[in-house]
Amino acid sequence: MIRVGLGIDMGGTQTKILAVSESGRTLRREVVSTSPRKGPASFIRRVAAVIRRLERGLGRTAESATLAVAGDVDVSGGILRRAPNVSAFERYPLGDALSRALKRPVTVQNDANMAAWCAYARELGRRFPNVVALTMGTGIGGGVILDGKLFTGATGSAGEVGHMRIYSGGALCGCGARGCLEAYAGKGAVTRQARELLEARPGVSALSRRKSLEPDDIARAALAGDPVAREVWRKVGESLGLGIVNIVYLFNPDVIVLAGGLSQAAPLFLKSLRRILRCESFRAPFGRVKIRVAQQTEQGALGAALYSLESPH
Amino acid sequence: MIRVGLGIDMGGTQTKILAVSESGRTLRREVVSTSPRKGPASFIRRVAAVIRRLERGLGRTAESATLAVAGDVDVSGGILRRAPNVSAFERYPLGDALSRALKRPVTVQNDANMAAWCAYARELGRRFPNVVALTMGTGIGGGVILDGKLFTGATGSAGEVGHMRIYSGGALCGCGARGCLEAYAGKGAVTRQARELLEARPGVSALSRRKSLEPDDIARAALAGDPVAREVWRKVGESLGLGIVNIVYLFNPDVIVLAGGLSQAAPLFLKSLRRILRCESFRAPFGRVKIRVAQQTEQGALGAALYSLESPH
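YS: structure for the whole thing
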């Protein structure tokens, strides 16, 4: 009997549904609109309908499913405690509702945790027992695999690396605190630092004539040799490096995987990131840790699909 | 058959040897001089002789022993990779040598890890699966219990909380980096911050007339109402609070236990520490975590003795 893994990655706009083989090969892929305004009951109905159609086409049924969401998840209750992108779904029993609709067990997990599982189980082939994944986008999330198991902590919140303080009292973060990693290496922080540098060094960069200063624009300018854009990514790499220094001192992982949209700019920031790590005097943990950039896209959905195959629910 | 746990806590000056019952009751306690200058072979001989005598007196023999040391330990090799206080013992096969002398398995562990085990298994009665202990002294060490097991990471270095960066670019730490937690909340940092405040506010404090400014002196002055001394401990509490914020975001523990000499000053810094934690917007992990001060002395030796009873070696 060939088992099928089923992963659902709910974003603020789109929800991806992935059916995979045990080796992680994609068997079917569907996308549905999340439409948070229609409410969670409508979302569950539409997702369940797509999954039933997908499984008819496949001629096979998954034993269970994993739903990955961006936010603070109560894993045991299958509830989103806090989800800025889909706040309409907060406190709704997502796990139970989807489980009833699909007539099988459903686990709800943080999407960064599932990205970490993808990195551990698929990209790294389970060769490294301790893996921390950073998902770099608007926010910076994190997922933690320790001794070959997903580690979620006392309330399912472990690995919230984006809000670790690296420059206490520094730049204001969306969470209300100052000096969080996210306030130095999230999408908004890349743009903010570009604006600050352009103001400090007027006339040096062609970027100053642009209205849009999205990370993509700044990456293209850096690749074309723009000095301010290059400086922005150097600073992002240093801040990420400091965050990773803390992760290494606390978790002592074998591998740290950078995932999410911003990780595509890694060639622009990896050098300054590694320079920060080389300065640390504790040789054993810093000599061991490898920094990898995720090759796989849709880490959340793929990780969720693989994770659904993991444990008897 | 009543089992005996055997723990050896090697400090830079003294080494404590503890035989305990399975419930953690002390059966025998001995202290030997570490005398690092005499070299590790002499140390092993003297410790083994004391243990043999102790066990004759007890009429029972421990099946195995755990040696706790301050420093970076290669657990699988039973070797001290880095130990500032007993550098003469670095790279010596301590575990193997003591195992041969005692004719039984010996595990070498970091002393903060054993303090964490003591907190988990003895003080908290194994009721909380995720516990992080901070040992506050000259350095700030850490030990991590996750899902009821000691977590040591890829190279045995997990939980090195003292060198996590909280104010990157800030005060210089003994490790060579700037802005480590230890540089704001270790013993030397307490004294340094007192000197800085005394210089900034001359004539305000009776402490300015003292030659010695050890943490004990500053604690006594604070209890007597000295405004500068009180301000020092307030600042120490804030820095510790920031370190704990990072620990909570990464490990999401049930309990954080403050141990070591400086933790005795907790009544002077706990209020400002808790104020920092209350400001965090992630309610689930910060609502869950309890901050406790270790009541047990000799946490390292007791934790090691209890840990020796844990696993089949």
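YS: worth flagging: The two ends of chain B are 19 Å apart (CA to CA).
IM: good catch. Also The first strand of chain B starts at residue 5 and ends at 10.
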